[in-house]
Specification:
mainly alpha, 5 helices
């Protein structure tokens, strides 16, 4: 099973944050926070090489809370050392307008 370090998780989150305007512009379906969390979840799916069975499934239309829960679920048992992912997720969803 592929693991992720806090430094690598932070790097991914920082990259999404830096590119947020472009990500939102090119994915106009959904709210800003949902788009950025969707991108983080997609990056984690790829980085951690999750199989189809390991990837979270959603009933209905996912929202910000659903994506947050899915990200934290994906990280369970896949962190090389325990770290708090919430501050990194919060940074992605803070409104800087």
């Amino acid at each position: 099973m592929t693991k992720i370090s806090e430094a690598e998780f932070a790097r991914i989150c920082d990259g999404i944050y830096e590119d947020r305007e472009s990500i939102i512009k090119h994915n106009p379906l959904g709210k800003r926070d949902e788009i950025l969390l969707w991108m983080l979840l997609s990056c984690l799916n790829s980085y951690l090489s999750l199989t189809e069975i390991e990837m979270p499934c959603f009933n209905g239309m996912p929202d910000e809370k659903t994506y947050r829960e899915a990200i934290l679920f994906v990280l369970q048992g896949r962190r090389d050392v325990d770290f708090d992912a919430v501050p990194y997720i919060d940074k992605l969803t803070e409104n800087d307008n």
